[in-house]
Specification:
448 residues, alpha/beta, OB fold (Dihydrolipoamide Acetyltransferase, E2P), Rossmann fold, 4 domains, five-stranded mixed beta barrel, five-stranded parallel β-sheet, 13 strands, 19% strand
């Protein structure tokens, strides 16, 4: 029975499910094999096949990861590839998306490299920060005399700075003899520098290669020799992605031999262009300065006059100022005279003598009025006093007492108004119209 339309899968859907299943079930893996059919299109991606005796696997290394691969990838090389298994849906190709590629056997070397790097870093061997002379008077190059690195260095130095004095110290740059030879050469050059101060910089360089090819530059004793060198050292080993312990121990690292030469000396063409530009600027500045000073001279020449003219002009100015001064003084004097006259007139109107006469007349009138008013005031006050006295006598208790009445008071001075306010034997005082009497309260006699 044929399947219905809703149960059949499209090719793209099947490939999508297959890709998801591969990526989920297998994930990231390391695969070892031999490189075959390495292709590098203009996109920067690298496509290759990884094979062994019984099978092969298509692989894709994208540009963002390809630039981190140190050694060149060549057909026939045995490598280890880390990546994730996937499927290229448009063609249904089963493939490995590579993330890292290293030569087979590099794992142990990388581990040893990292351990030694951490050890030397902890000891401070990578702490060199001395500045190299620019440009060096006499550059000492440790490299292979037949390698491409020395040819690149000499070509760049000759093109950029033909005045550079360069001495090649031929040393092996690969194999067991390389590190001891470079260490011995460094010691010799440092001793000779005491006799020849012009030797002021050392360049250690070689071209690119695999991790095994560059292993001599990861030698612990070579790193220490570079660190203890009296002369500043630049290291330029391999390509840009190759970083050795010699690079860390050196005072400066260059990514390539050619870049090292470019960093060590200036470019004569750039200097020539700069000098030409500076010369043109100087000429323009001189011309501008001459033009400015010429204009200033013309202006000063136009302003320059004969001393006689200047004296005559100043004399006229002095005469004008003198006339203005005289007129101002006369005006000032006239104003002062008018003000003095006005103040004199105002002073005459407010003379103290006239004020004194006026006040004297006012005082005489006031004294006369006082003498006239005092008798009348005394008479009036006497009459008021007599009337008040009569009124007081009319309401005075003494007047009542004078008519035969008396006021009784106890020892405390309290007035006795009722017989019940006393007790037998109590002593009382009687206040009369004239004088006082001492009394004693007697008991009330019994009724008959």
């Amino acid at each position: 029975m044929p399947p219905s339309d809703d149960t059949a899968l499209s090719v793209s859907e099947l490939n999508r499910r297959a890709r998801q299943a591969l990526e989920q079930d297998v994930g990231d893996v390391w695969v070892e094999g031999e490189l075959s059919g390495v292709s590098r299109p203009s996109s920067g991606h690298v496509y290759f096949t990884l094979k062994d005796e019984r099978a092969q696997l298509r692989c894709a290394l994208f540009r963002t990861r390809a630039r981190f691969v140190a050694a060149p990838m060549r057909d026939g090389d045995r490598v280890k590839v880390r990546g994730r298994v996937s499927l290229f849906e448009p063609r249904g190709d089963y493939q490995l998306i590579a993330e890292a590629v290293q030569a087979a056997g590099e794992g142990e070397l990388l581990a040893a490299y990292e351990r030694l790097k951490a050890k030397l870093d902890a000891e401070g061997v990578f702490a060199n920060v001395r500045a190299l002379p620019y440009p060096p008077r006499h550059l000492l190059v440790l490299s292979s005399p037949s390698g491409a690195a020395i040819r690149d260095v000499l070509a760049v130095l000759a093109a950029r700075w033909p005045l550079a004095q360069v001495t090649l110290i031929p040393v092996p740059v690969q194999g067991r003899e390389a590190a001891p030879a470079m260490i011995a050469a460094l010691g010799l050059l440092n001793r000779q520098s005491a006799l020849d101060p012009a030797r002021d910089a050392i360049l250690i360089t070689r071209g690119g290669g695999s991790l095994e090819d560059l292993w001599a530059f990861n030698d612990e004793h070579l790193a220490r020799a570079i660190f203890h060198s009296r002369l500043p050292v630049m290291s330029a080993v391999g390509h840009e992605v190759d970083v050795t312990l010699a690079d860390f121990a050196a005072d400066r690292r260059a990514p390539t031999p050619s870049a090292a030469a470019e960093q060590l000396v200036p470019d004569r063409r750039e200097l020539t262009q700069r000098l030409t530009a500076l010369e043109e600027r100087l000429v323009r500045a001189q011309r501008a300065r001459l033009d400015t000073e010429g204009q200033r001279l013309d202006h000063l020449r136009a302003r320059l006059r004969h001393p006689g003219e200047v004296l005559a002009f100043r004399r006229r100015q002095l005469e004008q100022l003198e006339g203005r001064l005289q007129r101002a003084m006369q005006a000032r004097l006239e104003t002062a005279r008018r003000r003095e006259a006005e103040l004199g007139r105002r002073l005459a109107l407010r003379s103290p003598e006239r004020r004194l006469e006026q006040e004297t007349r006012r005082l005489t009138l006031a004294r006369q009025r006082l003498h006239q008013a005092m008798p009348r005031a005394l008479t009036h006050q006497r009459e008021r006093l007599a009337a008040v006295t009569r009124e007081l006598q009319a309401v005075s208790p003494l007047a009542v007492l004078g008519r035969g009445y008396a006021i009784l008071e106890n020892d405390e001075g309290r007035v006795i108004r009722h017989a019940t306010d006393t007790r037998p034997g109590e002593r009382l005082a009687a206040r009369l119209g004239e004088g006082r009497l001492a009394l004693e309260v007697l008991p009330e006699p019994p009724a008959n």
